[in-house]
Amino acid sequence: MQFMLQWASNSEKEISAMSFKLAKYIEPDFTEERFVNAPNCQLVLAPHAKAAPKGFHATSIFPEYFKVGGEWYLAKDSRMDAVPVWDEKSKKIHVVEFRNIREGDMVVVGRSEDASEGIYVHADCWEREKAAEKDVFAFRQSRNRETSFSYDYETLINLLKHEKENGGYITWVLGPACSFDVEARRIMAALIEQGYCQAVLAGNALATHDLEGAYLGTALGCDIRNQRLHEGGHYNHLDTINAINTYGSIPAFIEGEGIDNGIIYSCVKNNVPFVLNGSIRDDGPLPEVFEHTYEGQDTIRSHIRKSTTVIGMATVLHTISAGNMTPTYRVLEDGTIRPVYFYMVDTSDFAASKLGDRGSLSAKGIVTNVQDFMRNLSSGLGL
Fold first, then answer.
1. Quick one: average pLDDT of 309-323?
2. pTM of the prediction?
C-alpha cells in the first residue's frame, strides 16, 4: 500500500527546520569523588600483532573515558568491539580493530565501566526533555509494521535540513531494492545532487542494477517504470557488468555510453564517494568493488568516522556492518561533541530492529518499503 504523508506549509516547514536542535552533550563531572579517587587504567603491551592481552577492554557505541597519568581522556573516534590503545606520544586513546593491533601496543585492560578501574562508559550522556511518567502497563511500545512513523519522518526531514545547513556528513547505506523503481532512483539521485548525501555505502548489486537501469531501463531484467519483465532480461545485469568491465571503470562507462541518470551517475557527477563491497555471491564484480573484505571495511570506516547521520535502506548486511562502526557521538573539529543519528529502513520489522540487537542501541527502525520511504522524503524536502 502506497501512501504520502501530508506536510505542513512551506513557512511552517522552514520554522520547524530552524527549530531543530541537536541533543546537548553532558560532560562527566570529573571532580566527583569516584573519578578523583579512581586509579589509572591498566595498560598492558600487546603480545603479538592482532592479539590483545588477556582481560582487554572492548569498546562500545558510547563515549568512553580512560584515566592515564591522573587525567581522563575521551576516545574521540570510537566504534564497538574494538580495543582502546594509548599513544604516549600524542597523549590520545586510539580505538583499534583487532586486526590492526601491533605487537607492543599499550592496550587498556579492565572490564568494569564505572570508573573503578580507570575506565568510564558514559552511556547516559545526552540532555533530553523530561519524559512523561510511564505506566507500568501500556500498549504499542514496540516499533513494528503497526507503528505510525509520521513523527519519525518529520524529525528525519528536519534533521536532514539541519545537516545540510550546518555542514553535516550524511551517509546512505543502500541495498539493491533502492534501484528497482524509477522514482526511488530519481529521488536518491536528487538527494545526492542537492547536498543531502556525502557518501554512499553499498554492494556490487546496488551499483550493477542502478547502472543497468540507466543503460537498459531494467533492474534484474524488469522494467524500472512498470516492473514488467523484458524478454531475455535475465541477461541485462550481466551485459551491464560486462560493458563496464570492458570500459575498465564506472566513470569511463558513464562517459562512453552517455549515461545521464541514476544513483551512481549522480555520485560520479557530484564527486560524492561511493564504497562498494563485495560478497561471496557477486556476479562480476564491477571494477570499483572491494574484493578484499578488510580493505573495504577500512574504507567504510573512513566515511563513518566523519558521519553525523547514517541511513540504511533495504540491506541488513551492509547496514549492520556500518552500524558496528558507528558510535553514538562525534567529536567535531572545534571539540564540540554531538550525537550521531542512525536510521534503518526495511519492510521487515525484524530487520529494522535487528540493528539494535547487534549492539547499535540508538538506531531507529522505520518499517516500510524503499519506494514509499523515498516518496515521503521527497515530499517533505521538496525534491
1. 93
2. 0.90
Helix axes 236-247, 204-216, angle to 10 degrees: 100
Say whether the peptide bond before residue 176 is cis (omega within 30 degrees of 0). Answer: no
The whole-angstrom separation of Cα 99 and Cα 122 is 26
C-alpha to C-alpha distance for 237 and 240, rounded to whole angstroms: 5
When the candidates are 3.10.20.310, 3.40.50.300, 3.30.465.10, 3.40.50.10690, the CATH number that belongs to 150-381 is 3.40.50.10690
Query: Which residue in the block uniquely carries the three cell numbers 526495511?
Result: 346
Read off the C-alpha cell for 132.
512523561
Q: 341-346 and 309-313 as β-strands: parallel, antiparallel, unpaired?
A: parallel
Quick one: pLDDT at residue 113?
96
Q: 95 forms bridges with which residues in the sheet?
A: 84
| Cβ–Cβ < 8 Å for 282, 136 | no
Q: What is the pLDDT of residues 188-226, one digit of tens each?
A: 999 999 999 999 999 999 999 999 999 999 999 999 999
Task: Provide the grid cell at 154.
Answer: 518529520
Domain boundaries, the chain: 25-121, 150-381
Domains 25-121 and 150-381 alike in fold: no
Q: pLDDT by residue (tens digit) across 255-293?
A: 999 999 999 999 999 999 999 999 988 999 999 999 999
C-alpha distance from residue 240 to each of 54, 225, 234, 330, 381 (Å)? 50, 18, 11, 39, 32
How sure is the predictor about 349, in pLDDT bands with cuts at 50, 70 and 90? confident
CB of 174 within 8 A of CB of 201?
yes
Domain 25-121 indexed as CATH 2.40.420.10: yes
By C-alpha distance, which of 162, 164, 238 is closest to 204? 238
Rg of the chain taking only CA atoms, in angstroms: 23
Cα–Cα nearest to 357, from 142, 170, 83 = 142
